[in-house]
Amino acid sequence: MQNKNCLSIFALFFNIHVKVHYMITEEVDLYRDDAIEKMEKALNHLSAELSKLRAGKATPTMLDGIMVNYYGAPTPLQQVASINTPDPRNFVIQPWEKKMIGAIEKAIFAANIGMTPSNNGEVIRLSVPPLTEERRKALVKQVKAEGENSKISIRNARREAIEEFKKLEKSGLPEDMAKDASENMQKETDKYYKKVDEVLAKKEAEIMTV
Question: Rounded distance, CA 162 to CA 182, Å?
């Protein structure tokens, strides 16, 4: 009878240990996934910011952020007009409502994007001026700064995750598992660093060869 009670107690503690272990390892996965999500957001933000940099080629994202006064409400340009690029150096902006053409032209001037709109009463045309060597170098410098900001965000995500792993280790996570989690986090960091470098290299090549 005593042996049976001992076995029952052992089984109870074993089950509790298994449940606690499972909960802790599940938390490791949650912190890891959260860190990876933050790294992915940093990479996506980098791509979005670089797409706004004028590299001598007309792309619709260059006009992101232009707000048009649409019946008293600031409205993104893309919501009041179609934006086309008939060739690599020109935009053609067609208002959904013809009477909005003046408000769109005014918004483009106010945005100070380095392009002067031409309004023929039907559409607005924008020409992307060629980049000077000085401007190219300034853009490359800006690209590198954006890349470093992304890497800082990635490093912060790694650091936060590792700090949580250390807390879990104090709560019962085996040392070897905490070490593995930290090493895997570093691998993810290296992977996203490489992705950032690839995005930067592509943008720099675009700026220097257009």
Answer: 6
